[in-house]
Amino acid sequence: MITQVHxxxxxxxxxxxxxxxxxWVEAGRHLLAxxxxxxxxxxxxxxxxxxxxELMVRDTAADPRRAEAAVDExxxxxxxxxxxxxxxxxxxxxxTRADALGLPFxxxxxxxxxxxxxxxxxxxxxxxxxxxGWRIYADFLLGAGHGRIAVATEPSVYWASGVHILxxxxxxxxxxxxxxxARALTPAAVCxxxxxxxxxxxxxxxxxxEPAVSLVRSVRRxxxxxxxxxxxxxxxxxxxxxxxxxxxxxxxxxxxxxxxRRLGPLGARVATALRERLSEAPSFxxxxxxxxxxxxxxxxxxxxxxxARIAASWPHVAxxxxxxxxxxxxxxxxxxxxxxxxxxxxxxxxPAEPGRFRVRHAG
Length: 363
Prior knowledge:
By secondary structure, the chain is α/β, with parallel strands linked by helices. Helix content is 39%, strand content 20%.
């Protein structure tokens, strides 16, 4: 008699990413590349107790309702946990749904402080909270001599939160923030408002490619605004599409990036592998994807696939990621388990070589 040997059942992880418009497709592609690279490495080294790790990828397309539906579906399909997502408002919807279902969710890249309305044990996050990163960005602005800040905004909980953080941090230090409604004002009208308010910096808290591209071009071509710095704290200039669309205008626009000044041996190896996979330099989002699976694989090997045990493991995580040591803790005002040591930089593209990044400030 021939005994059939059945392959071991995979351990399934749900993966959320914006892979179609209006989501930021390039960010989703980098996030997925990091997730997939790490899954491949886990499986090459024996998987999870001999069982292969399998990603079940769902496209959120920057739609919160689509993310909620994906979490529902993935929970029914028996995933051990959900990972990923780039857009903060979408991640908040996914986190809230995961919390309600008792499904562990490790958020890779979204920064909104209030990822859930109430404190939860089910959700952990790798990226730093918005209040931390944007305060560092505000310190950079002040250090560079920018106290009169204009922000071009569109309606979003994420953008509104950013404005609030900037105002709260800058006001006690003599800085001012004026909001310009990017829906109501043309790019030319935004330029006029910058002159009227004597702003020295314009921050783009708007969608990409539009209206961000038109705003950059208009400000850069207005001779009245030659001394005005353009900034994009949310990180749009990190991706190649920014440089492709804006050319020389893409440079000298500082943004937040979550990478250390120097990668260690693991980070350097991961950077090489990601570059090969993406056929371009990996963004910090790709590293976030890689580190997400690194954490989940360690948790699954140590604590098993039971959802409650996974969620209970967040405070005990101590893993070497591509960007350094990863641990989670509770932070005041943050409703989820928060990675405690994520590096934060303010970076821009070098005007002399837009394909090269300059670190302007670190916190």
